[in-house]
Protein: TrkA family potassium uptake protein
Organism: Ructibacterium gallinarum
Amino acid sequence: MKSILIVGLGRFGRHMAKKFLEQGDEVLAIEKNEERADSALSYARNVHIGDATNEDYMASLGIGNFDLCIVAIGDNFQAALETTVVMKDLGAQFIIARATRDVHKKLLLRNGADYVVYAEREMAERLAVKYGASNVFDFVELSPDYSIYEIATPSSWYGKTILEKDVRKKYQINILGFKRAGEIHMLPDTDYTFRPEDTLIIMGQNNHLKPLIKS
């Protein structure tokens, strides 16, 4: 269980708070808008109405004691930047901040954020990958160079084993698992035989994955 501080309870902050609580983490949420704060009480017990840009107020919360601090302010970049700076100055262990523009991302990273997320952009890109290729069922970007995909089994692989296809050497990818009838089987043995009804969970460099995810 981790202790999480979330500043901003718009859609992004609200969904983050709900997910952390669902996982059993402790969440303290700060929201400047009284109406948003009141509505959050339906799913979160520890909600404060406050100004996260106020250093004295933030210091009273013991910022350094939180495992993770999230700046989920999306409609006021100046407030998001100031909040990030205040958190870092007060000893925040790790800060995730939300950005909507490239320049905002750069400024947040330069001023204390450890990781910056493009909520709408990243979802848009994930959906574009998922629905833009007929054989892709899911997609997770691990870094700009590496990703995990769930793909349909290539027809040329049917009836062959992982060893016979020499997947790792020939394609330079790793097969993490396969899904059959909705059930995931992780780390199959090299004698696993590819079947048309299975989908494969593969990981590798994007340039090595591209030939397998073309529609």
